[in-house]
Amino acid sequence: MKPYRAELMVCAGTGCVSNGAFQVKDALENEIKERGLENEVRVVTTGCNGFCGVGPLLVVHPDGIFYQLLTTKDIPYLVEEHFLKGRPVQRLMYTPPEDKLPVPKMSEIEFFKHQMLIALRNRGIIDPENIEEYIARDGYTGLAKALNGMTPEEIIQTVKDSKLRGRGGAGFQTGVKWELTRKAKEKTKYIVCNADEGDPGAYMDRSILESDPHSILEGMIIGARAIGAQQGFIYIRHEYPLAMKRLLIAIDQAKEYGLLGDNIFDTGFSFDIQVHRGAGAFVCGEETALLSALEGQRGEPRPRPPYPVEHGLSGYPTNINNVETWANIPVIISRGAKWYAEIGTENSKGTKVFSLVGKINNTGLVEVPMGIKLRDIIYGIGGGIPDGKKFKAVQTGGPSGGCIPDSLIDLPIDYESLKEAGSMMGSGGMVVMDEDTCMVDVARYFLTFTCDESCGKCSPCRDGTKYLLDILTRITEGKGNMEDLDLLEGLSKVVKETALCGLGQTAPNPILTTMKYFRDEYESHIKDKKCPAKVCRQLNIYTIDEERCVTEGHGCGVCMRECPEKAITGEKKKAHKINQEICVKCGACYDVCRFGAVIVE
Amino acid sequence: METNTFEPKIVGFLCRWCTYQGADLAGTSRMEYPPNLIPVRVMCSGRVDPSFVMQAYSEGADAVVIFGCHLGDCHYQEGNYKAMRRYHLLKKMIEELGIEPQRLQLEWVSASEGERYQKEVSRIFSEVRELGPLDLNNGKAQSNG
Amino acid sequence: MINITLNGKKLSVEEGMTILQVAQQERIDIPTLCYHPLLEPYAACRMCVVEVKGDSKSELKTSCNTKVQEGMVIETDSERTLNARRLNIELLMARAPAAKVIQEMAAQMGIEKTPFPIENPEAKCILCGMCVRVCEDVVGAHVLTFEERGFERKVTTAFNMPSEKCIECGACAYFCPTEAIRVEDFRGREVLHSELTLGPTTAIRIPFMQSTPNVPFIDKDNCIHFKTDKCKLCEMVCEPEAINHDVEDTFKEIEVGSAVLATGYELLDCSNMPQYGYGRLDNVITSLEFEHLCHASGPTGGKILLKDGREPKGVAILHCIGSRDENYMKYCSRVCCMYAMKMAHLVHEKVDAEVYEFYIDIRAFGKGYEEFYNRMQKEGTHFIRGKAAEVTNAALIPEEENKLIVRAEDTTVNMIRRIPVDLVILCPAIVARKDSEKIMKLFGLCSTPDGFFKEQHPKLGPVSTDADGIFLAGACQGPKDIPDTVAQGAGAAGAVMSLGDEVAIEPIFSAIDEEICVGCKICIGVCPYDAISYVEDKKISSIEETLCKGCGACVAACPSGAADQNCFTNSQIEAEVSGALF
Ligand SMILES: Cc1cc2nc3c(=O)[nH]c(=O)nc-3n(C[C@H](O)[C@H](O)[C@H](O)COP(=O)(O)OP(=O)(O)OC[C@H]3O[C@@H](n4cnc5c(N)ncnc54)[C@H](O)[C@@H]3O)c2cc1C
Ligand SMILES: Cc1cc2nc3c(=O)[nH]c(=O)nc-3n(C[C@H](O)[C@H](O)[C@H](O)COP(=O)(O)O)c2cc1C
Ligand code: SF4
Ligand code: SF4
Ligand code: FES
To answer: What is the distance between the alpha carbons of residues A480 and A486, in angstroms, rounded to a whole number?
Structure first.
């Protein structure tokens, strides 16, 4: 490869692309050409950097300068200043919320500083569509080692020793699962990569698929060797076309390089991978439902036992692992189990990728060592809560997880602690909530999702989640009573312990945790008919501060025009009034009044 | 018009399994037909020795008829085929002798075909009446040499 | 064997059993809704949960699909289980308030009302998936499926349209525990259980009560397996493993010394008589179809119903359809008068309807028959002397609207009558079977002019035939009723039995005069029975008397005059010819 003076790594993750990363890239290339720099400076597209909240973004190597929120308009100036004149542009750098001074270097930015990249080791560094760049970063050395120097048993032992646990949610020991599949009687065996990532707001799997597809392929080939599988499948979510494209390119390249297909590395070992596009339901991410979908049937869970390791795809032993789980494998093999097991806590080893979203300054993907304190994520990496609001709770594990309150801010993040707190690791979603969040509404929101996504096969989940949602809705509308709380709790428990698959078994978690930590909020919805966070509009009373209306707004009348029910009366320069009989509490007046004259109680 | 009053003598060989019973049926059904055909009961049309036919002519029969079962229905499987083969040869032979071929006939009548028996006998009767008596000495046999 | 503790009782059970199976063995009742022993566990209703106690934690598991494991401690009635089941049944009560199983199960648990809102008080389906699974996994027709997900899930067909793939086996309705599925025909009439493959007349069945042998057979036309390649439920439940779907019909040759033909009769095809509307007008049926309708194992289970399911108010029975008729069969079919009266009696017995018999003459000649006729007259059957001329649906007066009108000349009063009825039963002529020609050829038989097999002699040989060892019984010889059939059958059987070991041969056989025979062997070639052999040392041919059937072919063929036939000797025939011409 020809050396360049500078390499401009333009993030081409889905977030940045949708904000115009490709236009920025084109502009960069044009500008560089115009300035005659094309032999010195090269533009490279990379996978997602994780800091999606500030895209499109660009990292300049080798100096590691990080530019954010780029537009095509910024490009001529940037090229001229930085790449021609050698003066980095401060205006386009990241500035922490509470600071005035920008942070030029990527490694210095809080968001990146606390992270530890294993699964995301190549993000933003390589071109995901070029296998040579992956190989240049020690790619496929794990595979070479596994195939040439290790027996399948040794590979499994290494994975077992690393104590890697499944990143798809349940956290089952990966090595143990491999061993079970290997020991299953049937000769024909399959492995599957679960890339159906269905949790709302979660996109760590997509990020890996897009930024480093070869890491998954390598993990799967090693796994196939260890387990004795002849065929692998990647079940990828329908909504991930870019990831799909990059995977297919990666597979073609790997085949071309003899890393996939017949007689890999001349060892006589053959293995092939097929990519299967998902059907689009959340529950298809559940392993048995995924297998049904792969078989061409309705994507519905089946009773377990029998588990897939014994009776999986078409009845053959099948090992299913999550994308992130697979991506960890090559590093574990090449650097050894001991190295990996030193990261993390007693029972949760290695790192975990989280998608940090919600009421937090730095949103994006973060990979952190297990055991990191919640506080370090929220206030360190995340840069705290915007607008100086108070942190209230964080929801982990997606719709199947629970809410962890402010009081548990020092909770170490690992499988066991999260479970104890009533939540779960799940796939790694992390939604941060501030004081303006109503916890009953949060529970209702997640139940709306699970109820909608329930496949309807088993009655507790199908009918139970529907009635749970009914009760929650009733409470948020001020129609609940105290018996509802008992019913809510009783039904939640029964659904949790009797549902057929993980969806139903975890669906009540948001209710149970919010009831545990924020019972007072439920009670005030029921007893006082008030929503403390003023989110549940049906409980709000909208009135107009007449004085403010006249003095500040001169009776502007915007509210009157916006009110869909014509509940507001008044004249110009005079105080306006809301007729409570007619008001449907849509909150439109509150949203449009620029003078703060509409009051919510 | 002069009416033909010639009463021919006709010898009929009747298979006992089919035509003989058919004739019986015609009789019990009180069907009318000329009495000129005198039936000789044989076990099978295949039993009819050509010499019987020749004997009949020589002893004054104006015609001879062999009745058997329909082809395929022979009680003895194939007797009627044998009769048929002989019939064709006999026909050639009597022609050589100057006897009109119509004076030898072969008919298939089954046990249930009383009506058919009646019709066939009536037909043969009128044909032979048309032909007139068989004169073996002065007839065409001589002239044909 | 595996050791477990079930409700405190230590048990040693077979490996591979599910908790539910063990419980059932122990007569412990666990409620189930989606479990069926013939289907794979589906574990969707979650009613069968039991508590499985572990060291640190105990879990609720569905017993229908959870296999027992060494050391398992199981409680089927713990408070936790009962609580879960109670809430679950309350959920199902809200979903399917009209389902009887659910009501009963709830009542058993002491629950009267569900705390959850009922959307549709008529709803029955509990989404147990029995129907979908049986259609998919057992029947293999792939017609039923689920639509939508979550709360909106429902059972449907592809695109919610009537499916061409449905083989109308009714398995879904049969397996549905809630009666949510019913099978109806395109007119919306509920299809009778008996009309379905899984009804009383199933695809595997004993053909009828008196059948011999009295064992089930597989009706390939209706068996699901032959339509979809699946099912084979019968194989699964048949413990002696006696069922084999793959056997093909085979032909077996049995050597016998004699045979009794009892091939019966056919009815004249009435569709060739347009004046009676058979095949054109609804509710014009033949007597045989009526017999089928009346029979307990028939399509209506023995009820006399019209095509639209109503009971008839008027029934006409038309005698002599094609019998005693110059244009069809000249003979009398002998049985119709009596069975027609029997049918009148059946109609009176089963429905409230007027019955009209249209007859030429009533022929009640048998024992007790005339008495039966008199009884029918007293029962109120209307006897109209006059052959029905026509059946029509063209009404002339209001009373005839939507009726079938039978037109006939009533010869007792000399007038044309029109009788409106709902059901017309034709009594067609009894005719020889279409294949009787073939059978006659096969056995060397003849027929009488009406086409029935001819007996050897109407008076002296009524059961034997012209073919040695072939006997007749029943209507194949001519129309007759059951008593006559049975009598003739017994006669035929007797004749067969009396044949014994020794065969009496007719005295008519041929013989060869040793003195005259020149050994030309011509006779050997013509004998159809291989009765003639060549005697090497004497250089002559010789006839085996017992093999000779006496056709005389050899006699006619013998050029030397050595062969001759008993009873029909050459000289006898010659004398006969001479006599005839004398
Ligand atoms: C509508 C109706 C009602 C009647 N009601 C009465 C009544 O009440 N009382 C009464 O005494 N009589 C009644 N009869 C008359 C009765 O049906 C006959 O007397 C009786 O059926 C004659 O019996 P069968 O055995 O000769 O012939 P069938 O009953 O016709 O039996 C012949 C059998 O031979 C079989 N067969 C035919 N050909 C072959 C072959 N080549 N190889 C093998 N099997 C063959 C046929 O399948 C059939 O099973 C009624 C008839 C009709 C039409
Ligand atoms: C409702 C539901 C949805 C799931 N969705 C996903 C998913 O999107 N991606 C995933 O990897 N695992 C998902 N899982 C977890 C899988 O069932 C399975 O445990 C996982 O793929 C196993 O891989 P691992 O051992 O590597 O975690 C889901 C589970 C449930 C119950
Ligand atoms: S229709 Fe009946 S069998 Fe089918 S799912 Fe509903 S309740 Fe079950
Ligand atoms: S396969 Fe067996 S059980 Fe199924 S319909 Fe046929 S006979 Fe009945
Ligand atoms: S019977 Fe076990 S879940 Fe329905």
So the answer is: 11
Q: Does the C-beta of C183 come closer than 6 Å to ligand 3?
A: no
The hierarchical CATH code for the domain A540-600 is: 3.30.70.20
Cβ C445 vs Cβ C451: under 8 Å: no
Mean pLDDT computed over B122-145: 76
pLDDT tens profile C502-550: 767 788 899 999 999 999 999 999 998 889 999 999 999 999 988 898 8
pLDDT of the residue at B89: 94
User: For ligand 5, is residue C496 a contact (CB within 6 Å)?
Assistant: no
Give me ligand 3 centre to Cα C157, in Å.
Answer: 13
Domain CATH for C557: 3.30.70.20
What span, in angstroms and rounded, lies between the C-alpha atoms of C167 and C321? 38
Q: Does C426 share its domain with C450?
A: no
- Residue of chain A with shortest Cα separation from C58: A497
Q: Which residues of chain C have pLDDT under 70?
A: 186-201, 503
Contacts of C268 (CB under 8 A, 6+ apart): C321, C322, C323, C328, C329, C428, C429, C430, C431
pLDDT attached to residue B121: 96
Closest partner CB to C116 (pick from A305, A454, A467): A467
Residues 105-164 of chain C whose Cβ lies under 8 A from any Cβ of chain A: 115-117, 126-127, 129, 145-146, 148-153
* Residues C279, C393 within the same domain: yes
Record the tokens describing residue C352, joined without a space. Answer: 């409230």
In a domain, C343, yes or no: yes
What's residue B141's pLDDT?
45
Q: Are residues C271 and C418 in the same domain?
A: yes
Residues of C in contact with B46 (CB under 8 A): 526, 551-553, 556
What's the total number of domains in chain C? 5
pLDDT score for B143: 40
Minimal CA separation from A282 to chain C, in Å? 11
CATH 1.20.1440.230 for domain A439-528: yes
Concatenated DSSP letters of A353-370? EEEEEES-SS-EEEEEET
Fold matches, A6-106 and A131-341: no
Q: Is C84 in Cβ contact with A467 (below 8 Å)?
A: no
Which among C44, C60, C87 has the least Cβ separation from residue A457?
C44
pLDDT at C201: 63
Closest residue on chain B to C578 (Cα) = B59
Say if residues C349 and C336 touch (Cβ distance below 8 Å).
no
At which of C382, C416, C431 does a domain end?
Answer: C431
For chain A, how far is it from start to end, CA to CA, in angstroms?
Answer: 66
Instruction: Please tell me the CATH superfamily of domain A6-106, with its number.
Output: Glutaredoxin (3.40.30.10)
Cα C487 from chain centre: 26
* Same-domain status, C302 and C426: yes
- Cβ atoms of A141 and A219 closer than 8 Å: no
Residue A339: closest CA among A355, A350, A354, A323: A350
pLDDT of A184:
93
Q: What is the pTM of this model?
A: 0.68
Q: Which of C467, C573, C581 sits opposite B9 (nearest CB)?
A: C581
**Closest chain B residue to the Cα of C574, Cα to Cα:** B52
* Residue ranges of domains in chain A: 6-106, 131-341, 351-434, 439-528, 540-600
Q: Do B52 and C444 touch (CB under 8 A)?
A: no
Band (A110; pLDDT cuts 50, 70, 90): confident
Q: C38: domain range?
A: 2-108
C43 vs chain A: nearest CA distance in angstroms? 6
Residues C306 and C164 in one domain: no
A226-230, B138-142, C127-131: range with lowest mean pLDDT = B138-142
Query: Mean pLDDT over residues A470-477, rounded?
Result: 94
Q: Are residues C343 and C485 in the same domain?
A: no
Indicate which ligand has the atom closest to the C-alpha of A455: 2
Fold of A131-341: Rossmann fold (3.40.50)
SS (H, E, C) A464-482: HHHHHHHHHHHHHCCCCCH
